[in-house]
Amino acid sequence: MQVAKAVTRTLVLALTLACVSGRASAVGIVGFNVASSFSLLGSVDALTQPVDLRILLDSVAASDTFVSITSSDLSVLTLSGGGITIPAGVIASSVPVSGLKIGAVTLTAALNGVEATALVSVVTAIPTVPENGTVALLAAGGPLLLWVASRRARQAPAA
After folding, report:
1. In what order do the strands lie in the sheet with 36-40?
2. Residue-wise DSSP of 54-97
3. For 80-109, what is each residue's pLDDT tens digit?
4. Coil/strand/helix, residue 140
5. pTM: predicted TM-score of the whole model, two decimal places
């Protein structure tokens, strides 16, 4: 019992000192907010569509935090500066990209030994879902991409 109390006090003291001295555990990445997104051909340092691709941290950044992001094919899609800097006090940041030619790439983000990936396809037009909720297909010079969404109206609950 005494040993357990001593170990507990030591751990609490070590954690307190780490937090006070600014040496708390390093921030890490959770991943990208979406598994895939689109970039328009010819776009330069632009946000992806229809959803803004963002990298998410596991906690708020205590200081400006650089996240390395690489493209699997630099002839298709690039990022300025090899990644993004997430400002202090922020937990997520957008990933602007440049679409150079039609195709699909895997983006790999890395921070403190943890990696996350997302697929970005460079296209000439962003796929949309018609008002009737049908599926829109788009050939992106590689694998056929499938974009599905539902626009069904909500039904009133049964009484």
Report:
1. 36-40, 114-123, 103-111, 65-71, 83-86
2. EEEESS--SS-EEEEEEES-TTTEE-GGGEEEEPTT-SEEE--B
3. 999 999 999 999 999 999 999 999 999 999
4. coil
5. 0.67
